[in-house]
Amino acid sequence: PELRPGVPAGYLGRALPDSLALLPPPPAQGSAALAQDQAIHRAAQQLRSSPRYALATTDADLRFPQVANTFSCALGVPVSQQATPTLYLLLQRTLVDAGLATYAAKDHYKRVRPFVFHKEGTCAPADEAALRGDGSYPSGHTAISWTWALLLTELSPDQADALLARGRAFGENRLICNAHWQSDVLEGRAIAAGALAKLHANADFTRDMALARTEIQSLRGSSVEPTGCEAEKAALAIKIPGVL
Questions:
Q1: Contact yes or no for 45/73 (Cβ under 8 A)
Q2: Contact 122, 115 (CB under 8 A)
Q3: In whole angstroms, what is the distance from residue 141 CA to residue 2 CA?
Q4: For residues 170 and 107, what is the distance between their CA atoms, to the nearest angstrom?
């Protein structure tokens, strides 16, 4: 099934986790949690012009085929429509599920994004008009990346540490991009966990996971390796001050 021509639909359809029921409200004005969000915002903006900011700019783009390569270095296998067609489709479909699962809360709370609140810019100026009308809480990018990190860890458990670290960094890059608050990112991971739990009850997802695992195993140890990994490693070594 397709959402629109050329864009595969998710696996879950309407059987999405209810983010409004799962999550508490975003931090209130005057709360310690909001003060923490503001402090992390200031720290994250110190990384502009750094290699980590450049990586965050790349991670902001959720379009395929580019985004399918996000976890290639952590996985140790290049991910593409040609090399791993089932895994590629798996990422496409679960992006839809994880992203849409955030919208019950997003549309209810309509939280203002940090770049709007502070009258600043983001790492993706072309997206800013759309983001202004799209609720900040929880982070859709984080829900997607953490869903991917979790399912890839199941497919390739020997690479679990690297995959989970990359998934976490992808979400935290939204702080560097000035598109989300830290609490948005943290709760995005909760939605990812709920989405993946629902996905495991879906027969099509289970079938594609088995096929994707075979694809990864067939490429493991071959001469085909991902590229750009040293630059990515150097960028990921740059941490946001104050984020544990």
A1: no
A2: yes
A3: 21
A4: 23
Pick from 185, 178, 209, 153: which is nearest to 26 by CA?
185
Which residues on neighbouring strands pair with residue 2, listed in sequence order? 8
Task: List CB contacts of 222: < 8 A, sequence separation 6 or more.
Answer: none
**Residue 2: partners with Cβ closer than 8 Å, 6 or more residues away:** 8, 9
Higher pLDDT, 115 or 1: 115
Lowest-confidence region among 1-10, 127-136, 201-210:
1-10
User: Under a CB-based contact definition with an 8 Å cutoff, are residues 237 and 82 in contact?
Assistant: no
Q: What is the DSSP letter of 208?
A: H
User: What per-residue confidence (pLDDT) applies to 244?
Assistant: 60
- The pair of three-digit structure tokens given for residue 83, joined into one six-digit string: 């090399």
Pair 5, 91: CB distance under 8 Å: no
Whole-structure pTM value = 0.96
Give the angle subtended at the CA of 131 by the CAs of 15 and 71, to the nearest 5°.
65
Q: For 139-157, how does the pLDDT look when each residue is reduced to its tens digit (9 = 90+)?
A: 999 999 999 999 999 999 9
Reading the block at residue 21, the tokens are: 């029921």
Catalytic residues: 141, 174, 180, 184
**Average pLDDT, whole number, for the chain?**
96
End-to-end CA distance of the chain: 41
Distance, in Å, from the CA atom of 79 to the CA atom of 32, rounded to the nearest integer, reads 41
Peptide bond into 85 cis (omega under 30): no
